[in-house]
Fold each of these.
Amino acid sequence: MKPIKLQSLENIIHKNDKYSKASSSLFEYNLHAKHDLQGWRNLLIDKASRFANKTTTLDLGCGHGDKTYRMLMKSDIAIKKSYLIDFSEVATKVFKGKYIEENAVIYNDDALLALENIKNKEIDIVLLFGFIHEVEERGKLINMLKDRMSENCLVLFSDNLLYFTAEEIFSDLNRLCLPATTFKKVFKFGMFHIYKSKSNINGKSKYVFFRHIGRMDEVFGIFGKKHREFFKFNIQREIKQ
Ligand SMILES: C[S@@+](CC[C@H](N)C(=O)[O-])C[C@H]1O[C@@H](n2cnc3c(N)ncnc32)[C@H](O)[C@@H]1O
């Protein structure tokens, strides 16, 4: 049975409570994780960092903000600006204490309100990690996001299927009208995670596997003109059918 999805206000209270345990040590753990969900998302961040030099990034539902922090700390790139959005103030407390440069802007507000502060076509990289499944008005969010994305914007999405099916989530994300490769988990065997992958350009599906210790998200996808380039950096293997 699917868990019951919390309404916005309840969700903010729940998240503030969850993050009240937010500590420097948890932030550091997430920041450096190689395994499990956090390690998986860090792997995506490291791939995305290759596209991040002199760009503006947006981390929606950033939680602790450790993923953006990881990108900002890469010595070989200089990020122009990073926006972090999370309605839980408690969540971003550690980040605020740790990162004092002016190129990081945090909005502790509902995503729809916070996005009003960002200019059209300003964003080059969007992180949607564990966030989309939380949003009530996904259609509205995606429309706002679409306006704020630059022409070559890259969108990294990785999430669970707690409340929605993969088909529901991908049909929402397809409203970004970007070429994409999407992945849905079909099977896990030890360290091997097998996904069905689909490109929305040729519509063909194939099976791919990833070797990763611990959990990976149930669904993920890379959206944007550079989505194929992203996979040149060899994070998955194809299974010949
Ligand atoms: C599951 S956490 C994911 C955190 C982080 N992205 C990660 O990968 O670890 C989802 C986050 O989205 C935030 N969130 C949920 N709905 C939101 C909304 N409507 N506006 C802003 N933040 C929201 C929550 O406070 C929470 O920190």
Note: The chain is about 30% helix and 25% strand.
Amino acid sequence: MDIIQTVKKYVLSVNKEYADTASDHYDFWEQHIQFVVKESLVLAETYNADKEIVELGALLHDIALMTKTGTRGEHHINGKNIAEQLLSKFDYPYDKKERVLNCILHHRSSKNAENIEELCVADADIIAHFDNIPMCFNSAYRSNITDIPDLINYFAGDYADLSDRTKETFNSRYENIMNVLFGDFYKTE
Ligand SMILES: [Fe+2]
Ligand SMILES: [Fe+2]
């Protein structure tokens, strides 16, 4: 089995354990990770990034949340440590491992991305929200964000976090989504 399939199998087993045992029974794979993987590979193709590094980064970027390790605020650091142990166990080459680990460490904002692979994972993490709008509404409502202007700001905030180059390529899809969701409430300047 190649490294991608091996890591995916590990992530799916962690996912099942979380969905079966956590109080919220959240299905990370179905609701989020699968979309991040898909979008990260689209961006990797567009930006000519290393697809193996990007896919492994996407698969493992939220692994600390899925394994319930530490706090949400430090999940990028804990995730890097978990991935380091995992990839070492699979004898993944040192230089490639470091590149995957930095995708995880820097995934929380495209502003932190230091190379194109890190940018693909960070931006895909955001675009994945637009692949699963029902989940976004669910989490907005659970945070008591229910007014339409606040919901518009919620999605606009995600878009604003994208890197400048991905904003350009994603813009027309974003405008379509916002117009469908919010119609006349969403005005473009
Ligand atoms: Fe994350
Ligand atoms: Fe994520």
Note: Residues 32, 36, 61-62, 125 surround fe (ii) ion (ligand 2) (CB under 6 Å).
